[in-house]
Design goal:
The chain is globular. Strands 1-3-2 form a three-stranded antiparallel beta sheet. It has helices spanning 16-28, 52-61, 64-75, 83-88, 98-114, 140-152, and strands at residues 81-82, 124-128, 133-137. By secondary structure, the protein is mostly helical. A hairpin with a 4-residue loop joins strand 2 (124-128) and strand 3. It has six helices and three strands.
């Protein structure tokens, strides 16, 4: 690409990685393909927002698919799991794929914002640009609490 084809654009720092991801998608797309903007996940904020009572409410409010996702992340704390890893963890959806995970997490994100008034999830999310997917990881501390809550609310 020639230098004269480039322009400077100011982007808020918090959105920079998503913008880079979009540019990478656009550059790799076939000329006739229609580019779609992928909805970025919620931010990775301070874990102090996720008090034990909020975690309990979140687990109790979660449906089977979201509980399966939480259990999968909590069972492998500190590991980065792909949407494929998470899809394989859905017990009642053997044909689940990235789209199933996106729908489940989208509903979860709306619930977190509207019901709990939070801007973060109790796990980390980042873009894996090499594999063109989102990856998810739960801390050891949160994982221990989530597993206990999941066992209590069977």
């Amino acid at each position: 690409m020639a230098t004269e084809d480039l322009v400077n654009v100011l982007v808020p720092r918090k959105h920079l990685s998503q913008v880079y991801g979009l540019i990478a998608q656009l550059e790799g797309a076939a000329p006739s393909a229609t580019a779609t903007i992928e909805e970025p996940p919620m931010g990775n904020g301070a874990t102090d927002e996720w008090t034990p009572s909020r975690l309990r409410t979140m687990v109790e409010d979660s449906g089977p698919a979201m509980r399966d996702l939480l259990r999968a992340m909590a069972a492998r704390p500190g590991e980065w799991l792909t949407t494929q890893d998470l899809a394989a963890a859905l017990k009642n959806k053997p044909k689940a794929d990235w789209n199933t995970i996106a729908g489940t997490l989208g509903a979860f994100g709306r619930r977190v914002k509207s019901r709990y008034g939070l801007e973060t999830w109790p796990f980390q999310v980042k873009r894996d640009h090499e594999h063109h997917c989102w990856i998810y990881s739960m801390s050891q501390e949160v994982a221990k609490k989530i597993l206990a809550l999941l066992n209590d609310t069977k």
